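Reopening this ticket.

The earlier resolution said the output was attached, but the attachment link was broken on my side. Pasting everything inline this time so it's all in one place.
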Amino acid sequence: DFAIEGIRWAVRGSDRFPLDGEMAWDAAAAILYELLPRFEGTPEERTFWQEEAARLSVRAVELGAGPPWLVNNNADLLGRLGQQDRAIRYLEQRLYAASDEDERAELHVRIAALRGGVEAALIEAEARRIEEARVRAFPYLSTDEFIVVGERRYD
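Inline output:
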């Protein structure tokens, strides 16, 4: 297929000039928005092209190329590829490179969401509260026993 061959040339060109972010973005965009929407190959081939697009797109952002929304798009793509840890590390790197406060705040939210940080922080705070109440009311009970007995209230 001519389209796949053309995209292979774009990828090779980008790999030959690894410091050219625009070439990386052009190759990634060709894969993401021209090849993959109408791709009819095997699931393994589709995954290969998605990984190539992620690699090139991440490089494009690192080199300052591509549209502003590409950071979030890359994190989503890495997540769809089952690479949650890599998506988190990628967003953390972008967080350290970001100079705009709004962008930094958005990245913090994305990172927390990926980590399940909001739920984890709430659970951790509740566990601390229960432990403090247990020590105050029934220091001789285990946490499990305290949960069954409940808090003593002196209102």
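Reporter confirms the inline version is readable. The mean pLDDT is 89. The radius of gyration is 24 Å.
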